[in-house]
Structures are given as structure tokens and as C-alpha cells.
Amino acid sequence: MTASAQPRHITPVAVVGPTASGKSALGISLAHALDGEIVNVDSMQLYRGMDIGTAKLPVEEREGIPHHLLDIWPVTVTASVAEYQSLAVSAVEEIMSREKVPILVGGSMLYVQSLLDAWSFPPTDPSIRARWEAELAEVGIDALHARLATLDPGAAAVIEDKDPRRTVRALEVIELTGQPFQASQPPRDAPPRWGTRILGLRTSPEWLNPRIARRTEQMFSQGLVDEVKHLVGQGLRADSTAGRAIGYAQVLDYLAGGLSVDEAQQSTERGTRRYVRRQRSWFNRDGRITWLPADAPDLRHLALHSLP
Asked: Does 301 lie in the same domain as 167?
């Protein structure tokens, strides 16, 4: 085989960072430059029909770049990090087998780690889980999440305070293993899977908060309420994984009479800012990330220059 016929070495690139920081646009730019394909690492973009509220790029804005792991689940499915990990690892390796560069784009923290690290998920114990679910039914999610915060502040900082399923799961793992929930996760100082180069978009609240406000306003003006009404007809419920997504939870509350539409929009914006604080805290602890200023005038050039 001649040197020119040698297969090229493929190293995936991950683009992570907070919501509304420009990950999707940078991912598209890198895919063009590196002959790559996008692998979604946003947990809510896995759901079919959840388009406006997740800022999912329409097909016409994907610039011909193939996207993987979008729209794979109906809104009635309970999200599973373990199932996502299996699907995403297969997608990345299939892309690499065709000598294309996987560009992993998203900010869902546990999903990013499940893909980039060799994370073997802890076992389950139905009796322990049932006991925590009974306590959830008795005291409510706020009190149960507060209980998690006393046992494992690190886990409580990552898991949304209105997420009963992951709160119960964390408490189950803590009881099963006798260790904090995060101790079951692999350390983030080992080389990432496939030698992936991880790029993070650094933002300041002064720059990002107005973008969050504009994005939230656009979602509501572009028809988020009608999107949620349509998804209710497909089985979307407030107590489901999809129904607890930021924006969707607030619109469901509006449709149930608990909020005005203006209050739903304001609550969505506040919830997004809270989630961004969690994302910053999570990703800042990962020393493998090469950070880039999200507001750089030539972000694509900076990103490519940072790659080997």
C-alpha cells in the first residue's frame, strides 16, 4: 500500500459548554473543515418533535452535514444514559470506520461523560429503589432532593432539583455502594475515549444571559406553546423525562393553568440560567477541556488551531 493510500488517523472532537453558547454553529464549522459528521450529545434533542424548545437545528440549517442521534425516541420514553452511551459509542465508531471525523456536540453533562469515559453503570436494586420512590411519594421531590444534597452535595449540584427519577437513582446508588453517587463515575483525569479532543466554549454571564433571553423569547414567538400542545397529543406528560425539560415543563404548567404565558417564558429563562450554572461547574472540573472564548470573532480558526 502506498503512503497516499494509508488510512488517515481519526480523532473525534467534542464541543461542550453551556446552553446558548454557540456549540451547534461551531460543530457545523468544524465538520466542514475536518470532513466530519455530528453526533448529538444533548439529551432532549434525542426526542422526536422537541424542536423549538431544544433549539434543534432544522435540516435546512445543517448545511448538508450528517447528524446522528437526533429524534430517536418518542416523548413517552424514559431517557437512559446507559442506552444513549451504547447507541452513541456505536455511532462514533461507525463514523470513524468510514474515515470521517465524529464531532460530538452538546452540553448534557452525564451524557457527555458517558460517551467520553469508560463508565460502567452501577447495578440496581428494586427493593431499595422502591423504598426511595415511596419516600418521594410521601415527602415530594423538593424534600428528597434536599436529602440528596445532605448525603452527596456533588450529585445534588448536577441533578436538577425537579428531577425525581435521577434523584431516586442517585440515592439508590449511594445506598448500594456506600459511596457518593459521583464516586461511581470514572475520574475525569484519564484520557478520553478514542483520544477525543474536547473543546469547551467559555462564556461570561454578561455575554450569555442576553443570548439566553433572546433565545427564550424566540422560542415562544416561534411557536413553543403549539409545539407542546402537539406533543401532549403524542403522550407528553409533566411527570415524564421529556416533560421535565426546561421550557416544556413551564409550558405544560401554563396549559394546566398554573402560569400565565409570560410567567412561563420568564420561568424558562430563569431555569436556563440555573442550568447554565450547573454546566459551568461540571465542565470546569474537567481538566482535559481546551477552553475557547465563545465570543471570539474567529472561533472556527481558534478551534482548528487548538487541535493537533
From this structure: no
Q: Cell 500500500 belongs to which residue?
A: 1
Q: Are residues 177 and 191 in the same domain?
A: no
**What mean pLDDT comes out for the span 142-171?**
86
141 plus 270 within the same structural domain: no
Give the mean model confidence (pLDDT) for residues 127-147. Answer: 91
Residues 6 or more apart whose CB falls under 8 angstroms from that of 102 comprise 10, 12, 13, 36, 37, 39, 91, 92, 95, 96
User: For cell 422537541, what's the residue?
Assistant: 50
Per the structure, how many domains does the chain have? Answer: 2
pTM of the model: 0.86
Where residue 247 sits, what CATH number does that domain have?
3.40.50.300
The reply to whether 20 and 141 lie within a common domain is no
**Mean pLDDT estimate for the chain:** 92
Are residues 220 and 249 both part of a single domain?
Answer: yes
User: DSSP string of 90-145?
Assistant: HHHHHHHHTTPEEEEE---HHHHHHHHS--PPPP--HHHHHHHHHHHHHH-HHHHH
Q: Which residue has the higher pLDDT, 180 or 3?
A: 180
| Claim to verify: residue 132 and residue 33 sit in the same structural domain | no
Q: Determine the Cα–Cα distance for residues 166 and 253; give it in Å rounded to an integer.
A: 21
Radius of gyration of the chain (CA): 20
Nearest one of 308, 307, 271, 272 to 292, comparing CA atoms: 307
- Is it the case that residue 243 has pLDDT exceeding 80? yes
Average pLDDT over residues 197-224: 98
Question: Which helix (DSSP H) or strand (DSSP E) does residue 174 occupy?
Answer: helix 164-177
**289 residue type, one letter:** I
- Whether residues 214 and 109 fall in one domain: yes
